[in-house]
Design goal:
The structure holds 2 protein chains of 2 kinds. By secondary structure, chain A is an alpha/beta fold. Chain A contains 24 helices and 12 strands. A 6-stranded parallel sheet of chain A has the order 1-10-7-4-2-3, sandwiched between helices. Chain B folds into 2 domains: 33 residues; 186 residues, Rossmann fold.
Chain lengths: 475, 225
């Protein structure tokens, strides 16, 4: 049985492309951030040195991941926190549910975190009667609409102000509300402030965790991250095991790379760094949940491993010509765009046909590699994964996959190209058979399975005399 | 599946998977990271303070350059103009700064009794100093020291008034991170970076200042020139 009921990229991309409103919103967003990013990156004459340092730090982490995790566990515990280990989503959700139930809390505030989206935490909590309120403006919009985020950084980018106004009016019970962004933000501020003040438990993700000191970082703009990590009595932070950095000093590298790549600012408005618990200041109980959920599979692949360097800045989304046209939903994953195309199939495994379709959602133009602040060679990993997908389908697939015309054609061509005599014989055959399809020097329609190739392109016929023949006859 | 693996904890499982994934490791525990980026800025003191002010301004925060002696008067003026009646004061704040504020104002001290969330939420503003400023990014850094107080003090009030001395401004981020070494590794106090007032660009990428944190940030820079 094939896992996953999600459609493949190919199956739905067309529908999203046809949605003109969506394309306009996404196009506007990606272009704006892309241009701004360029300006703030140019300002730093040591940008390349920072990228290289970032890459090296992450590589060092991956090569010694177990050692750093144990070091982090020790330093967090020493600073008054409690560390939990979750092998998969189910594990993590169970741990978090139990922690909240212990606190007898049902009011939980949450700051945007893709990691918690990945494990479908909100749904798991809802099943246990716990409502986790999203406090990031965009996430609140997405949550109220019962929708899915479409961009790592601006999850509600697919909604415009008029749509948001209607949503707030009906869901927040407001009679009067304009569609000015400032008024909409004010409405959300008032609604959420009440909830912040009474919440007993806060849930966050984390951008970085320092193994040496046990310090965890949340990088944000709105202040809801500060609220969630400061106001409740208990704080639960879910952290992918790859988010570790060895030393406090490493923060100086990532805090220059991340804001400029992400929101295209010199620094984003708020960054909070906390080390365990502090008496009289902020949550007195701190739980850190370390999440694997497929990350060790990624680590297991030497080419794919660099995917774990990702600091979720979303710069690669904003430069991707594919993402710009389809938007995030076509990827059917919490990780869209180029990073999603390499991370999702590795996390979910190639049995998942939706995930396995993602390495093909790219033109391999290489723009993502160029902007990536930690120099992940995304095109390299894409090609590597395409290869793995083909091998996997051949191995696991049934009769249909094995007799797939594309496979057979490739096999046939591989044989033909492997020997000069075979190749030339094929050319001769082509020359003999093509007269019927040739029109004005091109072929626009081939028969049978080959018609798929010519459906969207013309083919040059085999010439009367090939270069090889001319070369031989020249003397 | 390895036998008995259901029995082993998630912790063991994860560590074992990592060990398997990494295979035969050459001893890479010491691989050195090349830090060829700037670690020290070449700006003069004057350039630092100018750049800091310029960059903070760009975040739509308000900045004012004052001398030590001018501060109380300027603070009084700000409170009048912004209609600040209830002012939160962290322990260790410089009392001299308050000398010209009218007696009719309410001063909310976080000591000896810590203020409640409701009191903070109903206040108008908070006055603090800070640990550091970073010129290149226009960032103010708090580390819960005297004159700054608990994190919540600078979070719930609607206006944050922050005072920084010229000599607290460093040029670039690496310099600030080094100075925070002791805070994170010894005292373990929380650290907050503030770069302008809270903001969102979530609606059609229109930047709106002031979502959850203080909607206004007012920075007094004490410089003696
Ligand atoms: S892959 Fe690179 S560019 Fe893309 S989100 Fe991750 S860090 Fe950013």
């Amino acid at each position: 049985m094939k896992k996953g009921s999600q459609p493949t990229f190919e199956e739905t991309a067309g529908t999203y492309i046809e949605n003109a409103q969506l394309r306009r919103n996404i196009g506007h967003a990606t272009k704006t951030i892309r241009d701004k990013r360029q300006l703030v990156v140019q300002e730093l004459d040591d940008w390349e040195e920072l990228r290289e340092a970032g890459r090296q730090i992450k590589q060092k982490v991956m090569n010694n991941l177990d050692r750093y995790l144990l070091q982090l566990e020790k330093s967090v515990s020493k600073a008054g926190g409690v560390v939990h280990w979750a092998a998969d989503a189910e594990d993590a959700n169970r741990i978090i549910t139990n922690l909240i139930k212990e606190k007898k809390g049902t009011d939980v505030v949450k700051v945007k975190s893709i990691t918690t989206d990945e494990i479908r935490l909100n749904q798991a909590l809802e099943n246990e009667g716990i409502h986790a309120l999203e406090t990031d403006l965009a996430e609140l919009i997405v949550q109220l609409a019962g929708d899915e985020p479409s961009h790592i950084l601006v999850p509600a980018i697919h909604k415009n102000r008029a749509e948001i106004r209607e949503l707030f009016k009906s869901k927040l019970n407001l009679k009067e509300l304009s569609d000015e962004p400032a008024d909409l933000a004010e409405a959300a501020r008032l609604y959420l402030r009440k909830n912040f003040l009474k919440a007993k438990v806060g849930i966050s993700g984390g951008n970085f965790a320092v193994a040496e000191t046990g310090t965890v970082a949340v990088v944000e703009s709105e202040g809801n991250g500060r609220m969630c990590t400061t106001l409740p009595d208990t704080l639960i932070t879910v952290l992918g095991i790859e988010k570790i950095v060895p030393e406090w000093k490493d923060i100086e590298v990532f805090m220059q790379l991340l804001p400029r790549s992400s929101t295209a600012e010199r620094m984003n408005p708020y960054n909070t760094f906390w080390t365990g618990t502090t008496e009289g200041d902020g949550p007195q109980k701190f739980h850190l949940v370390l999440l694997d959920n497929g990350r060790t599979n990624v680590l297991d692949d030497e080419t794919g491993r660099q995917t774990l360097h990702c600091i979720r800045c979303s710069a690669c989304l904003n430069v991707c010509p594919v993402y710009e046209r389809t938007g995030g939903h076509a990827y059917h994953s919490v990780y869209p765009g180029p990073i999603g195309a390499i991370l999702t199939p590795q996390l979910r495994g190639l049995d998942d046909r939706s995930a396995a379709s993602l390495p093909y959602a790219s033109s391999l133009c290489g723009a993502c590699y160029e902007v990536c602040p930690v120099k992940i060679n995304i095109p390299e990993v894409l090609l590597h994964l395409r290869n793995k997908v083909v091998l996997h389908q051949k191995k696991e697939g049934g009769f249909r996959q094995k007799t797939d015309p594309v496979h057979l054609a490739m096999k046939f061509l591989a044989r033909a190209f492997s020997k000069r005599s075979r190749y030339e014989r094929l050319q001769k055959m082509g020359r003999a058979g093509q007269w019927f399809y040739k029109k004005d020097g091109t072929i626009s329609k081939l028969p049978g399975q080959l018609s798929k190739w010519t459906a969207i392109r013309d083919v040059k016929p085999v010439p009367e005399k090939t270069f090889r023949e001319w070369w031989r006859d020249r003397k | 599946m390895v036998e008995g693996s259901e029995m082993s904890s998630s912790r063991d499982k994860i560590l074992q998977r990592i060990d398997q994934a990494l295979g035969n490791r050459t001893d890479s525990t010491d691989d050195v990271v090349e830090r060829r980026y700037h670690q020290i800025s070449e700006l003069t003191a004057q350039e630092k303070v100018n750049l800091f002010q310029e960059r903070v301004d760009e975040y739509k925060a308000a900045t004012e350059r004052v001398s030590e002696g001018e501060l109380p008067g300027k603070l009084k003026k700000l409170c009048e103009e912004a209609g600040i009646k209830k002012l939160v004061l962290p322990p260790g704040i410089d009392e001299n700064w308050l000398s010209e504020l009218p007696k009719s104002m309410t001063f909310l001290h976080d000591e000896p009794q810590p203020l409640s969330k409701t009191q903070l939420n109903e206040s108008d503003a908070v006055l603090t100093n800070c640990f550091l400023g970073v010129a290149q990014t226009g960032t103010i850094i708090l580390n819960a020291g005297p004159g700054q107080g608990r994190r919540v003090l600078t979070l719930l009030p609607d206006i944050h008034i922050c005072v920084i001395r010229q000599d607290q401004i460093v040029g670039i981020l690496p310099e600030a991170i080094r100075k925070l070494d002791q805070t994170v590794s010894e005292s373990g106090a929380p650290v907050t970076f503030i770069s302008g007032p809270s903001a969102t660009s979530d609606i059609e990428l229109d930047r709106v200042e002031g979502v959850h944190g203080p909607r206004k940030l007012h920075v007094f820079i004490i410089s003696e020139s």
